[in-house]
Design goal:
By secondary structure, the protein is mainly α. The chain is 80% helix and 0% strand. It has one domain.
């Protein structure tokens, strides 16, 4: 009898966990946040930077870069809102400020201008400058915190994991992608994502400004 009760309790717990999971899971949120985050992380657009670092003697380990980027971004996803509360900043205000930063990043992608400067280092570049600040940098931090006002943590975690998976395959196939896609195709992809990022930045700024006022 006790075994049956324990089994029924475990079954009920499993049902509650599954219902809680699928209750927050939204495939459209995952897809839209994935497109947004992959455009911000921009593994395709950063291929020339990766190649330039290799030519300067920087050693790149795709697994280390991917794992480090995921850990940094995931930690910021869960602790970022607490940090905002520590400084007394509401998520809506941060979303407006973040939308402005993302707007500048979109201009970089579309207009081929350099607004944010990073320092290249020699040696093992898996953590610096690739994982941070190139992939898991201020732009990605801002994007994550900005869209937590509209997306659930579960869906953002899933889309973030998908982005890191794409990043890993891009890193291990950097030379293949450069050879077979060509610089022109990579250039077009970067411009396309730049327009998407620009549109989402405008949505973040004006949408949260409306909620503030």
């Amino acid at each position: 009898m006790r075994i049956c009760r324990k089994n029924s309790i475990f079954a009920a717990l499993n049902r509650n966990i599954m219902s809680e999971f699928f209750g927050h899971f939204d495939i459209w949120q995952v897809l839209s946040s994935f497109i947004f985050l992959i455009a911000i992380i921009d593994p395709f657009g950063n291929i020339p930077v990766t190649l330039a670092l290799e030519q300067k003697g920087t050693k790149i380990h795709p697994v280390r870069v991917s794992v480090a980027s995921f850990v940094i971004l995931l930690a910021f996803l869960f602790a970022g809102e607490w940090i905002l509360k520590l400084f007394g900043v509401q998520i809506e205000y941060f979303a407006v400020a973040g939308g402005f930063v993302i707007f500048l990043m979109a201009l970089e992608m579309i207009l081929d201008v350099t607004i944010f400067q990073t320092t290249n280092l020699t040696g093992d570049g898996s953590l610096v400058p690739l994982a941070f600040p190139m992939y898991a940098g201020p732009g990605a931090f801002t994007a994550l915190l900005s869209i937590t006002a509209e997306y659930s943590i579960l869906n953002l975690t899933i889309s973030l994991a998908l982005c890191i998976l794409v990043l890993y395959f891009v890193l291990i196939g950097t030379h293949w992608l450069t050879k077979y896609l060509g610089q022109t195709s990579l250039y077009i992809i970067r411009k396309f994502f730049g327009i998407i990022v620009l549109a989402i930045a405008c949505k973040l700024m004006f949408g949260n400004l409306a909620s503030i006022f």
